[in-house]
Each structure stands twice: as structure tokens, then as C-alpha cells.
Task: inverse folding
């Protein structure tokens, strides 16, 4: 007997957020499309510093000052969306350095505070990316992996006390970009403390197979991104990010990915993600929904569909 889909599907607000578009109408739109869950960047100053220092994001405007009022008002907007629209926050995405002993206490405390906020929302996951890439820091040593994983485990133990799972997201321009680096991290990481978020679009950009990675590490996967990319090996730097596209418009084997999750009876969340849309955020969302429901035969909310 064919197994049924157990995971629900949400949407990431990047296409609005990174384009400077307001969040509240986006939440209303996503709820109207049938989504019950959303993810968004935490947008705290430590994440912003990491992105500007280590990530190849192309020309940047001067950094804005992220005050406590700015951050808290952002959280209030998410709270209003959850309270008024009934669409729930699944996670806040944060960057960290993890390997800098002087920076880590500050990062750890920020992660703990964000985890407390997530617990207040009833959000299940803290998604973390970051760590200096080999292009920046040089070839990672065994000690680098130990330091990196001990940091992930430390915050993971803290967040578990709040009922929030910590997961690491391999990402371009970070500590884990390739399958080889992912394997080395997973050999070192205590997955009882921290788990994994697979984003297939970032892995295919490094010629890594996200379906095989998902199959290999399914027991440690506690969160998923559904993301596609029109990979072009000639693209460098920021242009690699511009290759991200609507689901079905790229080269990611999303059907294979969904099949692995269904066979493994994965019952977490899968979040559709696109960075800045080349169309409109709304049009890209509609196209990705159509691919997920019509081509993959998935439901955004299988429990309700059942």
C-alpha cells in the first residue's frame, strides 16, 4: 500500500521581505492561498552582520540600524498575522558564525532569546545557517568541525528545553555548502541535540544530490525547504542566487525528494522558498503551489485534506 503524505507545506516570506515589501499583506495573501505555516528571516543585527561580512550578495546599500524597537515591531507584525489570520510561524531563520570564541557567547544568547520568542509563537523549529565558508576561512580542519558542531549542540540543548528543535541549513557561502562538507558535519554532530534542514536548491548549486542527501540523513531531518534552481555552472557570486526559481522551473528532483519524505513517513514541515521573485511574489507563489499540488500531487495541509 502506498504511504500517505504526513508533512504539511508552508511558505517563506523572502520574496516580500528581501524586496522591501510589507509583511502583513503577504501573510493575508498566503492564508488566502491555503497555507497554515510561514517562515521568515529573524532579521536581527548579528544575522545581518554575518550576511554582509561572509556572503557574496552583490552590491549592498549601507546597513540600516536594527534597533530593539524595529525587531520587536517585526515580531508584533508576525504575532498579528498569527492572531488575526490564523497563519502560524514555523521558524525564524538566523545566521551565526559559530566558530569565533569571542563572538559565540553573543550569538548563543541571541539564539536563546529567539528560541524563547519561537516558543511563545508555538513555532516548532529554529533554523540556523552560517559559519564562514572555506572561500573565506580556508580549508576546514577537524577542529573547525568540532567547534562548529559543539556550538550547534549547545544551542540545540537549550532550545529543546523550550520545545523548539534546532536545525542547521547548509547554504551557499556558509560553513557547509557541499555534500562532502555535509558528510563531515554529520559525522561529528550529535543529532540528539541538533538536526538538519535540507534545502535542495543550495545543494544542487554545488553539484550535490539533495535527494540522496535527504535519503541518507532522513533520521536527522526535522525541517525541509522546497526550493528550485535553474543551475548554470557559469554563474558566479551573487548570480548563483539569481538562479533560484519557482518550483518546477529548475533542475531539482522535487518528486524524488517528496517520495523520500513520504516513504520515510516524515511528519514535519516543508517550506516552499524563493528569494527575490523575477515576477511578483504573488505570481511566483501561485506557480509553486500549482506545481506542488498538480504535478507532485501533494496537499498543503494533508491532515485537513484527509
Result:
Amino acid at each position: 500500500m502506498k504511504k500517505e503524505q504526513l508533512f504539511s507545506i508552508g511558505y517563506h516570506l523572502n520574496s516580500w521581505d528581501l524586496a522591501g515589501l510589507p509583511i502583513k499583506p503577504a501573510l493575508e495573501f498566503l492564508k488566502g492561498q491555503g497555507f497554515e505555516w510561514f517562515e521568515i528571516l529573524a532579521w536581527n543585527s548579528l544575522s545581518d552582520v554575518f550576511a554582509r561580512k561572509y556572503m557574496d550578495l552583490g552590491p549592498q546599500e549601507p546597513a540600516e540600524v536594527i534597533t530593539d524597537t524595529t525587531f520587536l515591531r517585526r515580531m508584533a507584525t508576525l504575532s498579528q498575522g498569527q492572531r488575526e489570520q490564523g497563519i502560524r510561524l514555523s521558524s525564524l531563520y538566523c545566521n551565526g558564525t559559530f566558530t569565533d570564541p569571542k563572538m559565540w557567547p553573543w550569538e548563543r544568547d541571541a539564539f536563546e532569546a529567539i528560541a524563547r520568542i519561537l516558543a511563545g509563537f508555538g513555532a516548532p523549529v529554529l533554523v540556523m545557517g552560517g559559519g564562514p565558508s572555506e572561500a573565506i576561512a580556508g580549508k576546514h580542519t577537524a577542529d573547525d568541525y568540532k567547534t562548529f558542531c559543539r556550538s550547534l549542540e549547545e544551542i540545540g540543548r537549550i532550545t529543546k528545553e523550550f520545545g523548539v528543535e534546532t536545525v542547521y541549513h547548509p547554504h551557499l557561502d556558509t560553513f557547509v555548502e557541499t555534500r562532502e562538507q555535509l558528510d563531515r558535519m554529520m559525522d561529528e554532530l550529535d543529532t540528539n541535540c541538533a538536526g538538519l534542514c535540507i534545502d535542495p536548491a543550495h545543494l544542487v548549486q554545488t553539484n550535490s544530490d539533495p535527494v540522496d542527501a535527504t535519503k541518507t540523513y532522513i533520521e536527522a531531518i526535522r525541517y525541509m525547504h522546497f526550493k528550485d534552481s535553474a543551475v548554470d555552472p557559469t554563474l558566479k557570486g551573487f548570480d548563483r542566487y539569481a538562479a533560484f526559481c519557482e518550483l518546477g522551473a529548475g533542475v531539482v528532483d522535487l518528486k524524488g525528494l517528496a517520495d523520500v519524505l513520504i516513504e520515510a513517513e516524515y511528519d514535519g514541515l516543508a517550506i516552499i522558498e524563493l528569494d527575490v521573485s523575477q515576477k511578483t511574489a504573488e505570481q511566483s507563489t501561485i506557480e509553486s503551489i500549482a506545481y506542488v499540488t498538480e504535478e507532485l500531487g501533494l496537499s498543503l495541509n494533508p491532515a485537513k485534506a484527509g
Notes: DSSP finds 14 helices and ten strands in the chain. Residues 142-160 form the longest helix (19 residues). The chain has one domain: 8-305. The chain has a mean pLDDT of 95.
